[in-house]
Every structure is written in C-alpha cells, then in structure tokens.
Predict the 3D structure of the following.
Amino acid sequence: MIIGIVAVARNGAIGKDNKLPWHYSADLKFFKRTTMGNAVVMGSRTWESIKRPLPDRLNIVLSRSGDVTLPPEVRLIRSREELIELADELRSDVFVIGGASVFSSLKDVIEKWLVTYIPENVDDADTFLPDGLFDGFTVTDELDLGDDLLVRVFERQNRAS
Ligand SMILES: NC(=O)c1ccc[n+]([C@@H]2O[C@H](COP(=O)([O-])OP(=O)(O)OC[C@H]3O[C@@H](n4cnc5c(N)ncnc54)[C@H](OP(=O)(O)O)[C@@H]3O)[C@@H](O)[C@H]2O)c1
C-alpha cells in the first residue's frame, strides 16, 4: 500500500528553510516505528534536508532532473509513473514522506494518510500542506502520542462502483 505520512502545524505549515520547524521526539519515534522495514519515498529537497538514508528502510528519492547525489543504496526515481511501478513490485508498504510537492504529485495514489497534528503555529514557515490531500478520505483512527500530539489515520472512502 502507498501511505502518506506527515506532521502538520495548526496553520498548515510543514517546513521552513528546508527543515522541520519543530522537534518532537514522540513524533520522530512514531515515524520511525511506523516506517521501519518498509520503503520511504521523498522529494530531492527533503533528501537534501535529511542528507542520509533512513536506516533499515528502502530509501527512494524522486527527482525529475536527477541532479542529486545519492549513495548507492538509495534508489533514484525520475517520475510518478516509475514510482507506481516500483511500488507494485515491492512486498513492503511505501511511505510517502514528503515534502509538499511530492505529496501533491502522489496524492491520487496514496490510499491512507497518517497525520500528526503539531500543537503550534509556525508563523514564518515557507512550506505548507497542499490543499485537498484528504478529499475523499475519512478518519478511521486516532492515536495520542503524548506531548499534545495527535495522529489521525485517514483512509480512502470506498469509491462507488
Ligand atoms: N512536516 C513534515 O512531515 C515534512 C515531511 C517532509 C518534508 N518536509 C519539509 O518540506 C520541505 C520540502 O518540501 P518541497 O515541496 O519544497 O520539496 P520536496 O517535495 O521534498 O522535493 C521537491 C523535488 O522533488 C522532485 N519531485 C517532485 N515531484 C516529482 C515527480 N512527480 N517526479 C519526479 N520528481 C519529483 C523534484 O526534484 P528535482 O528538482 O531534483 O527534479 C522537486 O524539485 C522542507 O522544508 C522539509 O523539511 C516536512
């Protein structure tokens, strides 16, 4: 399954200066235990932000230009279509981990979202969650991570046949 995972501030912010504009270890632990053993796909800007493969996960970087330096164990994917083909071949789940442009590109193939609500506003953010990502989704679960952090699980409503 292709699953989106994101943390979002009250005002919709997800990034600032190509970084996460907060630090919540409970959310980082949630991210780690959820994605561990699976594949993670990220845009080239998010790769530039984290700069190293996330351990014990297949790391996939999306870049149209291919102008990105990657260690050999990280897969470079040049298009949405190539990612969809790879996801079909993999036995694991594929977590779409951001950023905003990758969430927009892959929104129609994401079947489920895990969204952490960060209990603050980020006034000077420069990257925001794109509109409409959860259209056609319904909340199926909620998890309390402590520290005022809430995770909502969104799953696609059955499409009319
Ligand atoms: N809060 C969170 O959960 C979270 C998660 C992740 C990231 N972030 C934040 O989000 C910000 C980065 O987001 P962003 O939107 O600027 O950048 P991004 O989505 O990480 O990367 C954008 C790049 O990805 C490539 N790309 C995007 N769609 C593609 C497609 N369909 N096919 C091929 N390549 C594609 C392009 O690379 P090329 O230019 O190389 O062609 C594009 O320039 C940072 O501040 C980061 O910290 C937040």
Q: What stands out?
A: The first strand starts at residue 2 and ends at 9. Strands lie at 2-9, 13-15, 39-43, 58-62, 75-77, 94-98, 112-118, 127-128, 137-146, 149-156. Residues 6-7, 14-15, 18-20, 42-46, 49, 62-65, 67-68, 78-80, 97-102, 105, 127 surround NAP (CB under 6 Å).
